[in-house]
Amino acid sequence: MRPDTPAEHIAEAERLIRTATRYPEDQEPLLLQAAAHLELADARDRASSLYDQLLSSSPANPHLIKALQAANLWEYGHEAEARALISGIRSATPADPAPWEVIAETLEAHDELTASEECFTEAATLLISEDTPLTPATTALLTGRHRVRRLLGLPHDDWDMVADTRHTGPVPLDELHDPKRIWALGSDDPAELRAEIARLRAELGDRRAALSRPFPVAILHWPAAELAELLTAYPTLSAEYPSHAVHLAGIESSLRALAASGTHNLGIVTASVPSYEAFAASEKTSPASPSLLAEYATTLAARGKATPWPPSPTAPCWCTSGKRYAECHGNAPGGNVR
């Protein structure tokens, strides 16, 4: 069950902290996830301590950690320190979109709309060029910029038009980001007001679902050699994996079914027999137990080992066949999911 109450978020954070102790090579993603749960539980001082711990350990993503630290600090009264961190990140001009998005949204959340728009624009100018295809991360920058510019009442520019065309949701981006959307309804038409409330509830539900799942829903992928070794050592698992081809087809069909049901943030984690056996030992469970497979997949995803699914049509297929996804498992019945 996904964490919902503050106590459940704290329990999940403590589980992730224990896991980080057991797997120090994965400390950074695990502690970041733990800090996110502590923030959701309003234990912001503990989250801040985790950010400090990460920043003292030569992290791989220091700008992102500082951005998250700034957002957290501002929320519990340390505005000056948060502003200093944001200023330092902007001066450092990181090449990763994530810290830019976090600090721009932090400024937006505290009604610093002009500074937020400037921050989004700085990031777009630095990271987006005509020669570089947009990624989900850079598209998110343009979407956030579009939102803030609508709040400021600024006219559309070229990047706003790009954000409009990239948006795939059921509500057009201009309407979604219209600051007068609810005000304009007023109370003259209760039916329209009820429809707007229903739409906002749906949007809030999607947001809460994303926040409650800080790591992907992931499916386990056994490469052919690893699966053969697994079934030789634990033949009872052959009921789960009749053949490698069936296993691969099952991964794709399961992920498509999850996507069709509205589940977002999907991924694939690659398994190995030594890793699986070590996990079974840590859980004091036999590797021959089929029920352990899902727990192993979830733990790998929590450790930041998931590869996002689906790949783009021209990217290599996740199954490592060497073919493009569109020519391999992306060409399965039902067509490409993108």
UniProtKB/TrEMBL annotation:
Entries under Pfam families matching the protein: SEC-C
Name recorded for this polypeptide: Preprotein translocase subunit SecA
Superkingdom of this protein's organism: Bacteria
Organism listed in the record: Streptomyces venezuelae
Cited InterPro entries: SEC_C_motif, TPR-like_helical_dom_sf
